[in-house]
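seq as requested:
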Amino acid sequence: MAEGISLEELQLAARNHGMPLEALRYDLTPVGLHYLLIHYDIPAVDPDTWTLTVGGQVAERLSLRLADLKEREAVEVTATMECAGNGRAALIPRPVSQPWLLEAVGTARWRGVRLASLLEEAQLLEEAVDVVFTGLDRGIEKGVEQRYQRALPVEVAFSDDLLLAYEMNGAPLLPQHGFPLRLVVPGWYGMTNVKWLTSITAVDEPFAGYQHAAAYRLRASEEEEGTPVTRMAPRSLMVPPGIPDFHTRARTLERGPVLLQGRAWSGHAAVNGVEVSLDDGATWQEAALEPGASPWAWRRWTFGWEAEPGRYVLACRASDEAGNAQPDGPSWNVGGYSNNAVQRVPVTVA
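struct tokens:
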């Protein structure tokens, strides 16, 4: 890296963690390996007194305990979730924030109740334009004291696949993943999936909270208003082959047949192709692509390689059915968001 990591960034890196890339082998990411970003502190929640309120521009205000939610029809969705800042540590100059490399991702099977069913029960009024989700986590950012809040337009909030999840991979949510309840918005970057959910509020004007109107926006300078970060850009990641050097993570493998493998996903449309390069992107070859567990889950890809002695830079890139494709290099923005540049893995074949 051209710039040193600050003490503040190290504090963030110690609190948050990415998914080791060898865990791309799993269809579902084990809960302890799933990436994790916590903006403030993990709140202490008493499940016996916790309630979820649904209010604002509604005809029927709701107040629900966890047991009330579990009595309703349960649904499941398997979805890949990625942090919007994944890859920002490679940018120059580096945005000063959580210094993600490529590991800020994971795929889980979420179980809970459909958000739309609760909104229908509360009967949103015609005046409602945004639905605001408030978590119990509280802190200060850019001088603004706040609870973590994000909003969705009403029409997005009523989408079928949005969940209020109380289980992850068949078990109750762990404290760090939002116990007792979190929002899951398949296809959108992780900041949308509010943890430790305590209230849902329909409002009659566009939400202007900090995490929505100031943070998580694509902009070339601090002075710009920018555009909001929403859906995940297509990305493919490779399981680094061979064995690593402890300190540098440089890869070494033996000559002979090698099965390169990884995962690919997009929040815009289904991934329809993955290509692999053995020569740092000079030439590309098609990889075999397997079905995903759901439209929102990553897809496994494989590529057979007869490795001969030498040094190589392996790469992979994905495209989706909406015509989006990974760029060769990163595009800089103030927050370092949505950087889906092609992954490169230097290897030495002994």
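The chain has two domains: 7-228, 235-349.
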